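Q: Got a minute? One more chain.
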Amino acid sequence: MKIKPGTLAELAVNFLLPWLVYRWAQPHYGQAGALYASAIPPTAWSIVEFIRLRRVDVLSLFVLAGIVLSILAMILGGGSRALLIRESFVSGLFGVAFLLSLALRRPLIFYLARATVARQAEDGIARLEQAWAERPALRRSLRMMTAAWGTGLTMEMLLRFWLVWHLSVERVLVVSPFVSYAIYGALMLWTLWYRRRLRAGAQAA
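A: Always. Here it is, folded:
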């Protein structure tokens, strides 16, 4: 898939703008108000996409779900240790959702891929649906990627929990970023390697 202006706009609205809005709003409205404000760009984007294309934007729903879970975790409160696991708790829930989706007819990564290819070409969804029906290798690869990311995100959450409850707060602040970045980096590198391997296999076939 080639990166097109529509894809860049989607990424900016769903990731860059929420972060910028949060950074701007936090000093003025506090953490809760900033989280509420950060939900405005993906919400507006999903509404416009639904009106324009009569299609729910899956990526926006994922971002909004993360913001809602962050707000719920903040409402639950807790001490300093609870605050340390909040971020991993949200990403860990997504990891569990990825793993649970393996029991469905189509894993979650399929729907993320469909939301992306829909902007690459007018017949992107139809081509993906046809490829899913006709190519067992595609079904295996998407399930493999879903399993890998689900396992990695879930493990990161569990490892963060272990660190929080077995180390001092000061040590967790030093160690946990290295653990999280190592896991995310390994997942990204594996994904790039796996995509390259799939592409080579497709070209050989």
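A: Residues 93 and 137 are 28 Å apart (CA to CA).
Q: Perfect, thanks.
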